[in-house]
Amino acid sequence: MERLQKILAQANIASRRKSEEIIQAGRVKVNGEVITELGYKVNQTDLIEVDGKPIEMAQHLYFLLNKPTGYVSTTSDEKNRKTVLDLLDPELKDTRLYPVGRLDFDTAGILLLTNDGDFTRRMTHPEHQIEKEYLVRVEGIVIRRKIIDLRKGVMIDGNYLAVPKAVRLVELDKQYQSTLLSITLTEGRNKEVRKMMDAIGHPVKKLTRVRYDFLTLDGVERGRYRLLKVHEVKKLYAHSQSK
């Protein structure tokens, strides 16, 4: 048995919150009876209708996209900028895919896309501790003391201590006065890496997410994507449950 609003969300009728509004508006019937109770539970044999039309369970899809810079990680943009959905082939436009979390407009790398709300919640909720690794090229030579400071955590947004899972020096470029670092996070605060680098006085020049849990960019060119394999989706679920 599952809650009615969860079933509506899984069928891509609307988000779970919007599905609750649809139920409360009296637009949903279960076996011919109007249901307005939030939390009402249904099973697979129940006939569920929205506005008089039976719902069909959507096929869940999971993609790994190698996002270029210059795209927003949303399904639409009020400034009419290109979205990551513009990178998809036309036949996927009606599958109600959306990004799992976000990458900034000026950040490239791994971004997952799905139409599975439960999967999205598991991948983005801080309690599940899903690792995301970034390669960040910053201005200036980052000395050892500042790397130690990063590992201990730095204050961002005025009163938040951002503590990365790991920080590793990759390269010092003395000729062009820049440093390449690997930073692993288990949360996804807005522009967190950029704010952390600003906090130690080394603004970001280039930022790429290169790993999402065990997934990497191997075999996926910038601007392209691939379907996740069944065992990869199961492994992501297993890792989110084990935290």
Task: Give a written overview of the molecule.
The protein is of the alpha+beta class and 243 residues long. It folds into three domains: 2-54, Roll (Structural Genomics Hypothetical 15.5 Kd Protein In mrcA-pckA Intergenic Region, Chain A), CATH 3.10.290.10; 62-127 and 217-242, Pseudouridine synthase I, catalytic domain, N-terminal subdomain (Alpha-Beta Plaits); 131-212, Pseudouridine synthase (2-Layer Sandwich), CATH 3.30.2350.10. Helix content is 22%, strand content 30%. The protein has helices spanning 4-10, 16-24, 117-124, 144-152, 192-199, 230-242, and strands spanning 2-3, 28-30, 33-34, 41-42, 48-50, 53-54, 62-67, 98-99, 108-114, 132-139, 154-156, 160-162, 166-173, 178-185, 204-212, 215-216, 225-227. Strand 8 (98-99) and strand 9 (108-114) form a beta hairpin. The longest helix is centred in the C-terminal third of the chain and has 13 residues, at 230-242.
Q: If classified by CATH, what would the architecture of the largest domain be?
A: 2-Layer Sandwich
Task: Compute the number of strand runs.
Answer: 17
CATH homologous superfamily of the largest domain, by name?
Pseudouridine synthase I, catalytic domain, N-terminal subdomain
Enumerate the spans where pLDDT stays under 50 for 5 or more consecutive residues.
none
Range of strand content: 25-35%
Spatial shape: elongated
Oligomer: single chain
Mean pLDDT, as a whole number? 92
Gap from first CA to last CA: 26 Å
Structural class: alpha+beta
User: What is the total number of structural domains?
Assistant: 3
CATH class placement of the largest domain:
Alpha Beta
Largest sheet: number of strands, sense, barrel closure:
9 strands, mixed
Instruction: Please tell me how large the radius of gyration is.
Output: 21 Å
Number of helices: 6
The amount of helix comes to 10-25%
**How do the helices and strands follow one another from N- to C-terminus?**
EHHEEEEEEEEHEHEEEEHEEEH
CATH fold title of the largest domain: Alpha-Beta Plaits
